[in-house]
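To illustrate the input format used throughout this study, we show a single complete record. The first block contains the structure-token representation of the backbone; no residue identities are included at this stage. The design step must infer an amino acid for every position from geometry alone.
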């Protein structure tokens, strides 16, 4: 019987010890703070020292403490958030639609020239009445999307026929040279405007075996590859000999 009572007593003491281990000291401070842990030292009516679960030691004066209790440890249940679904958006690959110059961030060259058929009427009776012919010119200027641009030099070559009375005439081969051509490009509407104010041409006349030099300012417009231009032939061999010229052609 005594052995049974001893066994019950030991079980009760062990259970009490386990129950004590399941509790922790909680110190409530007057400033509203709460410190949980194990009181490792206490001086009655003076101070106490408490060790928290992470090993930190805190010393408080009894005048700072509102109350001391034993409570079960607070177990924080982890919050499991549902996975966030990431919506995939379609982004088209535009690199295949760009030219080499566009992908390299380079400004492309735009050609303001082309092949033209021209018709001119001289305003001076001392020179042939009219001329017809073809010419090809190229004036490359740097322009990205839209705006004004300035070129350095351009030029071309042509073949013209001069006549006095539309029955007899001469053939010439002009060589065109343009300095600092000015252009405007509207990429959205595919419109080009240009002005060659320092435009000259040198020519050779078959039959008479004569070389010549003329000042030939020109303005023009191009839309969708079709172009037209107006030019004034002002000087011929240093002599003022005005003529009016129009041309129609295309750029390819």
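Output of the design step:
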């Amino acid at each position: 019987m005594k052995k049974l009572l001893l066994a019950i007593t030991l079980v009760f003491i062990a259970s009490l010890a386990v129950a004590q281990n399941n509790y922790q000291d909680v110190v409530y401070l007057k400033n509203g703070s709460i410190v949980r842990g194990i009181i490792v030292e206490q001086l009655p009516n003076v101070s106490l020292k408490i060790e928290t679960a992470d090993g930190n030691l805190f010393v408080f004066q009894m005048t700072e403490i509102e109350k001391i209790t034993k409570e079960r440890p607070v177990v924080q249940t982890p919050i499991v958030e549902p996975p966030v679904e990431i919506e995939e958006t379609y982004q088209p690959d535009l690199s295949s639609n760009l030219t080499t110059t566009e992908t390299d961030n380079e400004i492309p060259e735009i050609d303001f020239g082309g092949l033209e058929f021209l018709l001119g009427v001289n305003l001076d009776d001392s020179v042939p009445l009219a001329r017809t012919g073809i010419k090809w010119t190229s004036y490359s200027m740097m322009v990205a999307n839209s705006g004004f641009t300035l070129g350095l030099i351009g030029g071309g070559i042509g073949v013209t026929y001069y006549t006095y009375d539309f029955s007899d005439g001469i053939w010439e081969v002009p060589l065109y040279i343009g300095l600092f051509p000015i252009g405007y490009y509207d990429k959205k509407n595919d419109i080009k405007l240009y002005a060659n104010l320092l435009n000259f041409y040198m020519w050779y006349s078959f039959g008479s075996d004569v070389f010549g030099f003329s000042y030939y300012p020109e303005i023009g417009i191009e839309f969708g590859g079709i172009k037209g231009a107006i030019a004034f032939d002002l000087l011929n061999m240093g002599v003022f000999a005005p003529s009016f010229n129009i041309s129609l052609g295309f750029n390819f």
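Structural context for interpreting the output: The longest helix spans residues 2-21. Confidence is low (pLDDT under 50) at residues 98-105.
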